[in-house]
């Protein structure tokens, strides 16, 4: 009986460790250049981060299309799109889902911004957000980066709560813009 309990506790500990195991090293630090990428959007069009130079970018990673938290997060960004545009910001969502999954997700929820397919997982890895679930399935952790017009990381939010996140990011973006040197 004691041996069975010990085996069970060991298995639970290993499972818990596997749930939180990062699949890559650290994220780029605030002030560092944001890693560039080339990915396809929900319509199959190619995009790079470099194309956004001169603009503020809200780059948010999310685990999976059409899951409750990811849908909440995307729809809140959708609902605040005019405020983000007024603030001069571009929203880019990234998950490891494929283009077809993104196309269905964007259509179903009328998403008016770009979501990018990182099915090779290279971008999630370069931003340090690729994680393993249950020790097997690799997904992007729910992290958001604000990238400044010079292409540097201005803010990084880890493991965000999707509810209310869009409003929080919008407020932070406005504060960053107000504090940015004019010129």
How would you describe the overall organization of this protein?
The chain is α+β, with helices and mostly antiparallel strands. The chain has one domain (22-179): Glutaredoxin (3-Layer(aba) Sandwich), CATH 3.40.30.10. It is 36% helix and 22% strand. The protein is globular. The termini are far apart. 32% of the residues are buried. The model is unreliable at 1-24 (pLDDT under 50).
In quaternary terms, these chains amount to: single chain
Q: Tell me the span between the first and last alpha carbons.
A: 72 Å
Helical segment count:
6
General shape: globular
Q: What is the β-strand count? A: 9
Main β-sheet description: 7 strands, mixed
The CATH level-2 architecture is identified as: 3-Layer(aba) Sandwich
CATH topology: Glutaredoxin
Look at the helices and sheets and give the structural class: alpha+beta
What's the CATH first level?
Alpha Beta
- Secondary-structure element sequence? HEEEHHEHEHEEEEH
Which strand order does the major sheet show?
2-1-5-4-3-8-9
Point out poorly predicted stretches.
Answer: 1-24
CATH homologous superfamily, by name?
Answer: Glutaredoxin
> How many structural domains?
1
How large a portion of the residues is in β-strands, by DSSP E? 15-25%
**Rg, Å, rounded:** 18 Å
The portion of residues assigned to helices is: 25-40%
Q: What's the average pLDDT?
A: 86
What is the topology?
Elements (H helix, E strand, L loop, with lengths): L1 H18 L18 E4 L4 E3 L7 E6 L6 H12 L1 H6 L2 E7 L3 H10 L5 E4 L4 H5 L3 E4 L3 E4 L3 E4 L5 E5 L7 H15 L4
Structural descriptors:
about 180 residues; alpha+beta; Glutaredoxin; 7-stranded mixed beta sheet; two-stranded antiparallel ribbon; 6 helices; about 35% helix
């Amino acid at each position: 009986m004691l041996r069975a309990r010990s085996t069970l506790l060991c298995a639970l500990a290993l499972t818990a460790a596997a749930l939180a195991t990062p699949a890559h090293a650290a994220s780029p630090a605030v002030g560092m250049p944001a890693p560039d990428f080339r990915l396809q959007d929900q319509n199959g069009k190619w995009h790079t981060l470099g194309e956004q130079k001169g603009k503020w970018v809200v780059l948010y990673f999310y685990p999976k299309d059409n899951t409750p938290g990811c849908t909440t997060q995307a729809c809140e960004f959708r609902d605040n799109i005019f405020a983000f545009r007024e603030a001069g910001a571009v929203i880019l969502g990234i998950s490891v889902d494929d283009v077809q999954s993104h196309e269905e997700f964007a259509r179903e929820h009328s998403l008016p911004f770009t979501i990018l397919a990182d099915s090779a997982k290279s971008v999630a890895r370069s931003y340090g957000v690729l994680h393993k679930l249950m020790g097997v399935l690799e997904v992007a952790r729910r992290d958001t980066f604000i990238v400044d017009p010079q292409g540097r990381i201005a803010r990084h939010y880890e493991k965000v709560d999707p509810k209310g996140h869009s409003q929080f990011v919008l407020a932070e973006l406005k504060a960053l813009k107000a504090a940015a040197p004019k010129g």
